[in-house]
ABC transporter ATP-binding protein
Amino acid sequence: MKGDPDMVEIHDVWKSFDRGRIEVLRGVDLRVRRGETVALCGTSGCGKSTLLNVIAGLEYPESGSVRTAGRMVGSERERVDLLRHKVGFVFQLHHLMPDLTLEENCFVPVIAAGGKRDDAMRLLHELAEATGVSHCLKQRVRELSGGERQRGALVRSLMNEPELLLGDEPTGALDEANREKVFAILLDLVRSKGRTLVMATHDLDLAKRCDRVLRMRDGHILDAA
Ligand SMILES: Nc1ncnc2c1ncn2[C@@H]1O[C@H](COP(=O)(O)OP(=O)(O)OP(=O)(O)O)[C@@H](O)[C@H]1O
């Protein structure tokens, strides 16, 4: 929307590991508009996951500024608040709890955010229908197929109605048919709800279906216009 601040505004961000021995982000600048879908590409180890973690407030950079969903990412309290209310995360491996049912897993972020049970139940059924997992909500995750787990993880990531969805190879562990299916659902859900997506991927075909493809190399984003 005109006049709205960008969803992600990153300026001159530096991040290293191992006491500075591994320099990963070297002066990254990035702006992502609200409602945009962006794919982040680059060779393994170039820093895609690190950048997603910095955007979400899971990693804290040595220097530079990070503003996510209109908030400066600073104190621990701000970062927790961001993760509870503004940001959803979906990973290559689903990270669902195997001994809980899919429904129970999906309620975890709702409980953490103090959401209302009835509203959450309505949203759960809407998302489960859209992703095709209604039939297995009451099953334990360990009993589900890989595609069902990943679609379930997508549902869970959207249960706190995040303005920004971050994906770290969200379909990377699936076979080609499931990858295509889950990605189409993901993109459709993000766009139909006016959400913003930033996704790391090695799959150029999937990346090209986002509004913008950014390439990372040597700790920078090459085309962060
Ligand atoms: N907690 C950590 N401690 C030390 N080194 C780390 C840590 N996290 C990441 N790194 C290193 O930082 C570099 C960037 O890692 P990152 O996971 O961000 O890359 P990536 O582009 O997402 O890779 P991939 O495509 O393989 O997932 C790698 O060299 C990695 O080993």
Notes: Residues 8-221 form a domain with the Rossmann fold fold (CATH 3.40.50.300). The beta strands are 8-17, 22-32, 37-41, 63-68, 71-72, 87-91, 164-168, 196-200, 212-217, 220-221. The CA atoms of residues 9 and 48 lie 16 Å apart.
